[in-house]
Amino acid sequence: MATRIAASIMCADQLHIADELERLDAAGIDLLHCDVMDGKYVNNLAIGPEWLLAVKEATNIALDIHLATIDPLKYIEMFAKIKPEYISFHVEVCEDVPAVIQKIRSYHIKPAIALNPETPLEVILPYLNDVEMVLMMTVNPGFAGQAFQQSVLEKLRALQAILADNAYAPLIEVDGNINATTIGEMSDCLPDIFVLGTSALFHKKDNKTYAERCVQIWSEVKR
What is the pTM for the complete model shown? Predict the structure, then answer.
């Protein structure tokens, strides 16, 4: 599968979200990455199910919901009605990972497992055959604008080596200060999906369109 781009919708202009969705669609964005935060697992709050339902009705771009919450089972029920393509949850908060995966699948949604920068790769290895995607955080979840954590690169390479010898390989998504520079640092271990936020897409550093900024990203991916 070709590399895909997900746009982090929490970084968009919230006062003009309909216009933002049109611009993202024109740019060929593959997924809308939606961070759901409960103020407990991370010290921030975002995004409600009713707001995301309105987003879903306003665009044909598939939703990729990231649960940065302490109670994924509760939030799966809340967001399943939106019918996203993916729901990811954090392994760090789960006592029963298979139950969470099964709950997501029961709604015919693709389960994904998220991994913080400091969490050892080994904790998700038992579940690689059961999920559709691994969300590898390159910053700690909660806030935009953090520095890319270089230590994650070795973890990314290690995961790819494991999956290369595995009969089944879930997709790998990376999220956290992803831009042309940090993508260049991943040139030997490119993931399947890049989540773009303030660093690469939703900024005012130039007068380029989202489509033009994506072209810049693609040029780095294909280098």
Answer: 0.95
